[in-house]
UniProtKB/TrEMBL annotation:
Primary role: Phosphorylase is an important allosteric enzyme in carbohydrate metabolism. Enzymes from different sources differ in their regulatory mechanisms and in their natural substrates. However, all known phosphorylases share catalytic and structural properties.
Top-level division of the source organism's lineage: Bacteria
MF term (GO), any: pyridoxal phosphate binding
Taxonomic source organism: Streptomyces coelicolor
Biological process, per Gene Ontology: carbohydrate metabolic process
Protein's gene: glgP
Catalytic activity line of the entry: [(1->4)-alpha-D-glucosyl](n) + phosphate = [(1->4)-alpha-D-glucosyl](n-1) + alpha-D-glucose 1-phosphate
CC cofactor: pyridoxal 5'-phosphate
Annotated protein name in UniProt: glycogen phosphorylase
Keyword Glycosyltransferase on entry: yes
Length: 872
């Protein structure tokens, strides 16, 4: 019979075991081995059945077992030690508390998804895993972060395969009471809520749930509450589901409702109010509008509030293509703001102007969430050096008149939370060399450029570890493969071959990620006969483990999955290549350590960063990748292999795939498999092990999320907090008025005359020329501007490359024609074709850069010809 109502019955723990509840509710257990080991010892069978989830474990363990543990002095000593360790972790000083300077009192970090643990399935891919690692690393460092997201009642979909290999989606309903969450409650014990106004006098209410991620609180908003109508209850039903209005409401709830949730949490708990708001991708961009509305309610005008909000906002873009950005029809956005909806005191046109694509190449009727994010943030970054450059080019239209390399988007390369992704066996090997505490600090905090202690680990120990991890992966794969085939309808008699699937002594390649077309899941199938020969080579075989999900609406991605599954079903090769459905964190934590090679072959430069190869590297796995994302930045022959790319403008996609697939096969055939199977005098693959050693010692420290979060603190959060503090109401009003005055006066600014002391069009290296410029400033004064000389080598089209910028100084007042004279030196510090130009930029002490306003005045074409600005 089917139940008419579902309840969650919580266990009553005996008093001596009460600390187990606190340990289960703090998600630090997901990356703390001692805590997981403690829960495992409560009841090993229940632990396995619960999927390693302490909350589910405590809900299923027998009362008699709990009573037994309450009398077990050895268990209670372990419990006391682990509980004490958590208390010390939560309250003791860490890296952040040891820093000098006025760091932010708190940072609010908004993301549409968070991958903390498989027990809290609120993620779909790299963006969510990155956000989860960001929170964990911030906790380890002691950074006072508050995470903000949505609680999806269906999470992301579960994936299975039909008999013919077609992806099928399932959306299990999640009960928050069965998750490691607690409702945020007002001081009177009632659940805390936030609300948004909807058109027509309706309301969207959301409950706030709290997940404790170590020291970091994560607030998750849930619209499935009785006060909402059915349509509103479903706003937080699925991650990245529904149509445009559904997505818009999700993003309004995340941004606007998220700020209100943060204010509620700080009011209830006394947590310091955030000085910096960090929006992880454009989905949360509306948070800036809510903060503007807060300031307007306190008496600021819109322009002043905008400047104050921008000062304390950081925006991170993860998207290397415009198609990956959420864009909404202008009228849809307009309907949800204004007098009859949300933020009624802000004019709808002001809201729209923040997101409209009002620049060359944009679609002026579309509201772009990333564009709004950039306009509402004084500081922005991409997630690798290469992606930073791609982003500057993609968004250059917002800063017309400037070269793409001057667009104010920097980069902080992603990292991964090593305590989450490093296999326990790898950690124990490192701890044996340097001790447990030093090993924990090295993985969580980082700070060292090298892990030299890896050099002292004997080759045989490393090789035995790699074989152990590979064997564990083989067992995991066979178990998952058997479960998948049963779901596909196979009977026991058909599955005997699975006992021989994969081999713990064969070179193992991993490929696991989402399945959009640009990641090229099936590039390896380009020449199936050649791949088959590699898989079945009599002396140097390879085996491949593949996993990945296509978006439910992406039939093209599903066809790619089916194509690979059908190849892997072939009886000739199915013991050497497998596809595992339902890729998620639990699978990934087994997959990365067990592989020898991590394969990544996206279309360059469409991988913003791509962190799966980082997780593999921390376990001694070598990378085989296209030079994209982080690999473009940190690739060395010591760490793996680079797949050559055929990304010339004239190469059609089909030919490009063919060229790059051939390069992939060549690398495997001629360089990778020989090195793996080649044995030295010791009987071990010496050259392979040296690459593993150098990957761990030199690449390991770079890829840490601890390094990433420290960079955010030092380069973005602290400057943003300082700018936030400087932007008091008077300063914000002054800056807004100054910007309005400068924009109005800018048509009157021009470069009128340029001359140098050079007598000829050539000069010797090291020469310094005197540069004299006359500029018209119209209604502006010299303190409103900066006049710069920009110089450097020039290309064949006379564009300045690798430019150096020098500020020129004003000399004397305006002449009779209102022109101001500026002078300065021009150093000829490089050989070859050399050029220079001059320009005028707005200047104000509260600007993050002179580029910020998007205004610039440069010499006219006639003046350039007359000045002879090139030297050869």
């Amino acid at each position: 019979m089917k139940a008419i109502r579902r309840l969650t019955v919580r266990p009553v723990l005996p008093d001596p075991l009460r600390p187990l509840s606190d340990l289960a509710r703090n998600l630090r257990w997901s990356w703390h081995p001692e805590t997981r080991d403690l829960f495992h010892s409560v009841d090993p069978e229940c632990w396995t059945a619960s999927g390693g989830d302490p909350v589910r474990l405590l809900g299923t363990v027998r009362p008699a077992r709990l009573a037994e543990l309450a009398e077990d002095r050895r268990f209670l000593r372990r419990l006391t030690a682990v509980a004490y360790d958590l208390d010390h972790y939560m309250t003791g000083d860490r890296w952040y508390q040891a820093q000098s300077g006025r760091l932010p009192a708190a940072v609010a970090y908004f993301s549409p998804e968070f991958g903390i643990t498989a027990a809290l399935p609120q993620y779909s891919g790299g963006l969510g895993i990155l956000a989860g690692d960001h929170l964990k690393a911030a906790s380890d460092l002691g950074v006072p972060l508050v995470g903000v997201g949505l609680l999806y009642r269906h999470g992301y979909f579960r994936q299975s395969l039909s008999r013919d290999g077609w992806q099928q989606e399932h959306y299990p309903v999640l009960d928050p009471h069965e998750l490691p969450l607690a409702p945020l409650k007002e001081r009177d014990g009632t659940p805390a809520h936030v609300a948004l106004a909807l058109p027509g006098g309706r309301e969207l209410r959301a409950r706030v749930w709290l997940a404790q991620v170590g020291r970091v609180p994560l607030l998750l908003l849930d619209s499935d509450v009785e006060e909402n109508d059915p349509g509103e209850r479903g706003v937080t039903d699925r991650l990245y589901g529904g149509g445009s209005e559904h997505r818009l409401l999700q993003e309004m709830l995340l941004g606007i409702g998220g700020v209100r949730a943060v204010r509620t949490y700080c009011r209830i708990t006394g947590h310091p109010a955030p000085e910096v708001f960090h929006t992880n991708e454009g989905h949360a961009g509306f948070l800036g509008l809510e903060r503007i509305a807060e300031l307007c309610d306190a008496g600021s005008d819109f322009g002043s509030a905008l400047e104050a909000v921008r000062a304390g906002t950081v925006f991170t873009t993860h998207t290397p293509v415009p198609a990956g950005i959420d864009r909404f029809d202008r009228e849809l956005v307009a309907r949800h703001f204004g007098p009859d909806a949300e933020l009624p005191r802000i004019e709808v046109e002001r809201v729209l102007r923040l997101g409209m694509e009002t620049y060359p190449g944009g679609e002026p009727n579309l509201f772009n969430m990333a564009v709004m994010g950039l306009r509402l943030a004084q500081r922005a970054n991409g997630v690798s050096v290469l992606h930073g450059g791609v982003s500057r080019g993609m968004f250059a239209g917002l800063w017309p008149g400037f070269d793409a390399d001057e667009v104010p988007i920097t980069s902080v390369t992603n990292g991964v939370h090593a305590p989450t992704w490093v296999a326990p066996e790898v950690f124990r090997l490192g701890a044996r060399q340097i001790g447990v505490q030093r090993a924990e600090d090295a993985l969580a905090v980082g700070g060292s450029d090298r892990w030299d202690s890896v050099a002292d680990i004997p080759d045989r120990d490393i090789w035995e570890l790699r074989r152990t991890l590979r064997a564990q992966l083989v067992e995991e794969v066979r178990e998952r493969l058997r479960a998948s085939w049963r779901q596909r309808g196979a009977g026991t008699a058909e599955l005997g071959w699975i006992d021989d699937a994969l081999d713990p002594d064969v070179l193992t390649i991993g490929f696991a990620r989402r399945v959009p077309s640009y990641k090229r899941l099936t590039l390896m199938l380009r020449d199936r006969e050649r791949l088959t020969e590699l898989l079945l080579h009599p002396e140097r075989p390879i085996q491949i483990v593949v996993a990945g999900k296509a978006h439910p609406a992406d039939d093209g991605g599903k066809r790619l999955v089916q194509e690979l599954v059908r190849f892997a079903d072939d009886a000739r090769v199915r013991h050497r290549i497998v596809f595992l459905p339902d890729y998620g964190m639990a699978m990934a934590q087994k997959l990365y350590p067990g592989c020898d090679i991590w394969l990544n072959n996206p279309l360059r430069p469409l991988e913003a960063c791509g962190t799966s190869g980082m997780k593999a590297a921390l376990n001694g796995c070598l990378n085989l990748s296209v030079l994209d994302g982080w690999w473009d930045e940190w690739y060395q022959p010591d760490f793996g292999w680079a797949i050559p790319t055929a990304d010339g403008a004239g190469t059609d996609p089909d030919r490009r795939d063919a060229i790059e697939a051939d390069a992939l096969y060549d690398l495997l055939e001629q360089r990778i498999t020989p090195r793996f199977y080649e044995r030295g005098a010791s009987g071990l693959p010496d050259r392979w092990l040296e690459m593993v050693r150098r990957t761990l010692s030199l690449l390991g420290p770079k890829v840490l999320a601890g390094r990433m979060v420290r960079e955010y603190v030092e380069r973005l959060y602290t400057p943003a907090a300082e700018a936030h503090r400087a932007m008091d109401p008077d300063s914000a009003r002054g800056l807004a008025e100054w910007k309005a005055r400068v924009r109005a006066a800018w048509p009157g600014v021009s470069v009128d005359h340029v001359e140098t002391s050079a007598a000829t069009a050539s000069a010797e290296l090291g020469t310094t020329l005197a540069l004299r410029v006359r500029v018209k400033l119209g209604d502006l004064a010299p303190e409103d501007v900066e006049v710069q000389a920009v110089s450097g080598r020039v290309d064949s089209e006379d564009r300045i490359t690798d430019a150096a910028r020098t500020s020129l100084k004003p000399v004397g007042g305006p002449d009779l024609e209102g022109r101001w004279a500026y002078e300065g030196p021009l150093a000829l510090d490089r050989t070859g074709p050399f050029g220079y130009t001059v320009r005028v930029l707005p200047a104000h002490r509260l600007l993050a850069s002179g580029v910020e306003t998007g205004l610039v005045a440069v010499p006219s074409g006639d003046l350039v010809e007359a000045a002879g600005l090139l030297m050869r």
